[in-house]
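Appendix B: complex inputs.
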Amino acid sequence: MESSEPEIFDVVGIGFGPSNLSLAVALEESLDPVTSAFFERQPSLGWHRGMLLPSAKMQVSFLKDLATFRNPTSKFSFISYLHDVGRLARFVNNQDFFPTRREFHDYLEWAESKLAQPVAYSSEVTAITLAPTGGQGAADRLLVQVRDPAGGSRQVHARNVVISTGLVPRMPVGVEADEFVWHSSQFLHNFRQRDHGELKRVAVVGGGQSAAEIVRFLYDSLPGATVSAIVPSYGYSVADDTPFANQVFDPDAVDSYYHGSQRSKDAVWQYHRNTNYSVVDDEVITGLYERSYEDEFSKSNRLGFLNLARVVDVKRVGGDTRVTVHSMVTEESYDLDVDLLVCATGYDPMDPAEILGELDTYCAHDAEGRHLVGRDYRLVTTPELNCGIYLQGGTEHTHGLASSLLSNIAVRSGDIAHSIVARRSGAQGKGIDA
Ligand SMILES: Cc1cc2nc3c(=O)[nH]c(=O)nc-3n(C[C@H](O)[C@H](O)[C@H](O)COP(=O)(O)OP(=O)(O)OC[C@H]3O[C@@H](n4cnc5c(N)ncnc54)[C@H](O)[C@@H]3O)c2cc1C
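Resulting structure:
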């Protein structure tokens, strides 16, 4: 007989990218069992599939996997994966800390397949509201609404939710994606469906890692096409991954950032933004420059760089996409007609307000309207709300540079799991001090 009572979970995870996969691992390895359910809107596990370009590499060491920094003996580590699939010795011979993104994706799928509990795919969380309390007192349960693509819906109760819905693709102002204008997040899906012979003039806008990778890929994949790179800077800038700078991604750096003054937070962004934002790996820059040099020498003239330039308008004219480019050098605009424009123009950070809806009124904000977040990644809420709303992502202002990255997911997931368990047993969660 079907029960009308919704199922109740200690933890409901919203989104199942690497962050919540890492949390699922931490919960599974926790000595205090909790009940959990994870909902993911994609039909299967997918980590930026649209950008799994063949030679693209990770920008983080393989040791910063789902578990190792929290539990070096975890059976979910990248090393366990290599051992299990029979590539450990060859991986070590390769002497490279940075696997390809395709290999890392394979690792993520492997780890997911080892979880004891299945993930609910094709399941989009559409709303989170207060569950009826049936009386007085602070609400200790949330009602999570889930929709599947076939139109079915499901409701579950959660004592804690962990929101991890990821970065949001950003297009240039006033530009909309269509059949001929793509955001980089959709690049491979769209590229596979296109007749490559039709792509004779392609342009890529952006100055970061994705832009440079796509320029390289298109130049190599479309030998009959011209590729125009529209770059906002004078040229691609290198990502600083030197050892001292890289320390900003250490687990300890989260404490320094979280407990630091506003001046120290500002300094971290001022000095270390170039570890991740609008920068490109050395190896990609060098490879592109070599291509550009050879292109000029051989008089192919297929690869062009429009520097200090911005896209100000895109429209369809006849069979072409007309891109209006503004040069910051001459302060003049000119048109570029192309068969394809790829906007590798980045992402906005996760903003939990959207999914929280009305529930956001129970959450505390600072003077700039940003959420107040405990050291344990739990949103600070009003006394009416006793359940936990945790964030994986969207905490750049409180926890620093690694918020949307992989660098710290193992430790962060451990902190969240610890806090959930500690609160359940009435103890103080680690550093709930906001
Ligand atoms: C191309 C690319 C390469 C990158 N490479 C690196 C790298 O090498 N190293 C690094 O540290 N970082 C990298 N990043 C940064 C990136 O943010 C992290 O790698 C990682 O994706 C963060 O994991 P996540 O789980 O927080 O978010 P995501 O991986 O974005 O996962 C979020 C998930 O939530 C799902 N979702 C969203 N809304 C809902 C909803 N309402 N209901 C259900 N499911 C929902 C989405 O479908 C998605 O699967 C890269 C980013 C990009 C775009």
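The domain at 173-238+277-347 is CATH 3.50.50.60 (FAD/NAD(P)-binding domain).
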